[in-house]
Amino acid sequence: MYRIAVVICLHALFWITLMLVPIWMLGPMPPSMGTPPGHDSFEAWYYLVLVVVFYLNFFWWIPYFLRKKAVGVYILIFLAAFLLWLSVLDLDQRGQTRLPQAEPPNHEIRPMPGRNPHRQYEFSRVLTFLIVWLTSMGARYMIDLRKTEQRLSEAENVRLRMELEQLKGQLNPHFLFNVLNGLHVLALEKSDEAASVVIHLGDLLRYLLEDTQHSKVLLEKDITHLTNFIELHKIRLGDNIIVDFKVEGNVKGWLVPPLLFVVLVENAFKYGVSTANNAHITINLTLKRTGQLQFFCQNQIFHEVKTGTQTGLKNLRRRLDLLFPDQYVLDIQREKDQFTVFMHLQLTEKETT
Questions:
Q1: Which domain does 25 fall in, by range?
Q2: Cα 262 from chain centroid?
Q3: How many CA atoms lie within 13 A of 235 on its CB side?
Q4: Which of 195, 203, 245 is nearest to 225 (CA)?
Q5: Are residues 237 and 317 in the same domain?
Q6: What three-state secondary structure class fits 265?
Q7: Domain presence at residue 64
Q8: 161 within domain boundaries
Q9: CA–CA distance from 84 to each of 70, 81, 130 (Å)?
Q10: How far, in Å, CA of 341 to CA of 309, rounded?
Q11: What integer pLDDT is reported at residue 42 of this predicted model?
Q12: Which of 51, 83, 203, 281 has the most CB atoms in a 10 Å sphere around its CB?
């Protein structure tokens, strides 16, 4: 309620100031020029039109046209509103010229040579219209900026929670025990894969502890992290699993929030593998030139999905809401023994060179 009251007071102060500024700047017009609007007996319609223009621009034209990159349409709306405003002023001016003109008293100060009071008031009206329009744009920009900052702050909090979940999920003792145990066996067998396990594990830890501290990372780095994560699981599970991981498109230079995809892959390994049965996981990542990213993950279900997984997916969806408002699709489907996830994102940022 306090914020609402402050907003109302600020708007009221703006309109009162707008009414007083022309009087303060121009002063009273001579009686011979008629009674000007905006002065001793200004017409209510004059400010009513300004109020309508201000709030239409604030609540409708900017959000639905300027914010959605329809700049041409927005410019046409401005020109139409401005021309309509000028036509209204012209009609009002014609009405003013029909007012009876009183003879000025002898002591009255006449207008300075070369200056037309009517022209001055017309200019002040046009200037007032432009002030109202630009003020509505500025107010809308400040509000949108504040909402963006709040959304990014919340997104950062969600990201930190997800990083903690990923650290728990990927670096839990059970996972590390299996990887290190597999590494021990490979070392005893003097297998060449032992060195590969050390490299994958080192890269995975480095990414989690260093790169994820940034709000955006290179897409190729996130894909490398996925590859390391998948390879470690494949080495741990042996021949019981087949993973088809494909990347299509030129991913170089594109930026994404870290750890967007790994939660989906982690769930695929958690519920889509079995020591008694062969498993098959399909993972496809496709990036188009326009920045449209498509991520597909499908796995069988050998274990019942737990509540913790649903929480992880809920946090992921909330993070997408904050980072990609109205620019993503997350479709999760479960059909009998198949679990399918499809994610579509519109990337907009690339690394500056």
A1: 2-100+112-147
A2: 23
A3: 28
A4: 203
A5: yes
A6: helix
A7: yes
A8: no
A9: 21, 5, 13
A10: 13
A11: 45
A12: 281
Residue 166 within any structural domain of the chain: no
> Is the same domain home to 57 and 127?
yes
Q: Indicate the residue type of 208.
A: L
Picking from 309, 348, 353, 349, the residue whose alpha carbon sits closest to that of residue 332 is 309
Q: 143 in a domain, yes or no?
A: yes
288 phi and psi angles, rounded to 5 deg: -90, 165
Show Cβ contacts of residue 260 under 8 Å, excluding neighbours closer than 6 positions: 222, 316, 319, 320, 343, 345
- What is the length of the chain? 353
* pLDDT tens track for 41-77: 445 666 777 888 888 888 888 887 877 777 788 888 8
Classify 172 as helix, strand or coil: coil
Residue 343's beta-bridge partner residues?
Answer: 295, 330
Using alpha carbons only, give the angle 298, 301, 302 rounded to the nearest 5 degrees: 145
* Residue 38 CB burial class (10 angstroms; 0-12, 13-18, ≥19): buried
What region does 190 belong to: left with phi over 0, alpha with psi -120 to 50, or beta?
left
| 227 CB burial (10 A radius; 0-12, 13-18, 19+) | middle
Nearest CA to 225 out of 215, 211, 239 is that of: 211
DSSP character string of 20-76: HHHHHHH-PPPGGG---TTTTT--HHHHHHHHHHHHHIIIIIIIIIITTT-HHHHHH
With a cut of 70, say whether residue 117 has pLDDT above it: no
Could you tell me the two tokens for 128?
């007032």
- What token pair was written down for 136? 């509505």
Separation of alpha carbons 106 and 83, rounded Å: 40
Residues contacting 280, CB < 8 A, separation 6+: 241, 242, 243, 244, 299, 300
Spatial distance between the Cα atoms of 182 and 272, rounded to a whole number of angstroms:
20
Percentage of the chain modeled with pLDDT above 90: 16
- 118 with 189, same domain: the answer is no
Which pLDDT score is estimated for 342?
96
